[in-house]
Amino acid sequence: MGYNTTMRESSRVVVIGAGPAGLTLANLLRLAGVGCVVLERQSRSYVEQRQRAGVLDYASRRIFEEWGLAETLLAGAPEDHAIEIRVDGDPHVLDLRALSGGRTGRAIPQQMLITRLMTAFLENGGDLRFDAGDVALHDIDAPGLGPGSGSGPRVTYRDAEGAVREIACDYVAGCDGHHGVTRTAVPPRAATTYTYDHGIGWFTVLADAPPPRLPLFAISSHGFAAQFQRGPAACRLYLECAPDDAPDDWNDERIWKQARLRLGDETLPAGPIVDKGVVEMRSFVIDPMRYGRLFLVGDAAHIITPMGGKGMNLAIGDADVLARALRAAVRDGDEEPLAAYSATCLRRVWNQQEFSRWLTELVHESGDASLAGTFRRQLARARLDRLFASAPAGHAFADLLAGG
Ligand code: APR
């Protein structure tokens, strides 16, 4: 299709990607009275069915409460009030409600939150376009005459019918995850990237098997394991593995045998495995999370290991900071909060990266000594003891889990 047939439109903000970051941002922008169009590469059913995170931390819960969305989004989601850390079969329960002074999160499967965010946006007239192919950014660093001048960035894409469309805008929000296109629009000289490979793999399965009563972390010489609830009759299991393990290296027999060994529970009920995969334990951060009129949000700007459950929460936190900053820019002509966007988000991102790394070391090194040696195993066990025995250590842990 030639350039002449391109359909042109305009919007204040173009949001690219409809994951937790993009859908949260879209809802907050709607509430802030800032117009936006959301472009998502995948189909609606794909987005609704993708299973990933499962815990909304306290900081994210507060964000939805402050924007008046908590009732709609979190109805029926149970409080994440305690966790169990099982060491060689011995249970230790951390009462997060008491340790955090009531600053607890909510257990909610990501796809439920996503579906509710999508429904809230669409029912209120939101413009969300699925099956948007070949999304490309243009002139994100155009000097232009500023917002509203018509000389700002443009986003082009191919719609579900194959027509090429172009949207002129003032701001672009890159919410397209770690493998999206928006970060590639940032020239390497304009940003510093930080990457870290934790040297561990996690084999993960979703199973139609009874979930544990509390989120469960299990430490043993057989390696780390975790088991979490995903709805009333399903659970997610994580089993430490070699980073280069393939999902097919794990058949059902090996999965349940290892789960029973590591959880120290010979009677652990098995069930059909509905999904399996290997999670790469890698971290990534780009600094700054902005280039010209492009703002990177969520996984587009940073990835974190699942340890600590912060990926989705960081995405929601970024979206909140950006929505407030765009409201100030559009409503009051104040671009200061936008100028502070990256630094504001990165402070929290690095705090949570540190927490995630700390927890990763704690639960892996205290288990299988072949990972980091017997000396570090004893150190990790001492840290665990401190976590169970010292109230300030417990408070610090619960505070980091609360987020913010
Ligand atoms: N064009 C349009 N959409 C795109 C493109 C593209 N080129 N590339 C990716 N997308 C879409 C994906 O299909 C996906 O729906 O962007 C969305 C990105 O969503 P996520 O990868 O979930 O990223 P984010 O919203 O930042 O959420 C990140 O949520 O799932 C948790 O813990 C997980 O850390 C993760 C967090």
What does it look like?
This protein is α/β, with parallel strands linked by helices. The chain has two domains: 3-78 and 105-193 and 283-354, FAD/NAD(P)-binding domain (3-Layer(bba) Sandwich), CATH 3.50.50.60; 90-102 and 196-281 and 359-402, D-Amino Acid Oxidase, subunit A, domain 2 (D-Amino Acid Oxidase, Chain A, domain 2). 35% of the residues lie in helices and 27% in strands. The protein is built from eleven helices and 21 strands. It has helices spanning 20-32, 44-49, 58-66, 70-74, 96-99, 110-123, 252-263, 311-332, 336-365, 374-389, 391-402; strands at residues 7-10, 13-16, 36-39, 55-56, 79-80, 82-87, 90-95, 105-107, 127-129, 133-138, 154-158, 164-168, 171-174, 192-207, 216-219, 225-229, 235-241, 273-287, 290-291, 294-296, 302-303. Strands 7-6-15-16-17-14-18-21 form an eight-stranded mixed beta sheet. It has a six-stranded mixed beta sheet with strand order 9-3-2-13-20-19, covered by helices on one side. Helix 1 packs parallel to helix 8. The chain is globular, with a radius of gyration of 22 Å. The termini are far apart. Bound molecules: adenosine-5-diphosphoribose (APR). Adenosine-5-diphosphoribose is lined by residues 16-22, 39-42, 47, 52-53, 110, 132, 135, 175-177, 180-181, 298-300, 311-312, 315. Adenosine-5-diphosphoribose binds next to helix 1 and helix 8.
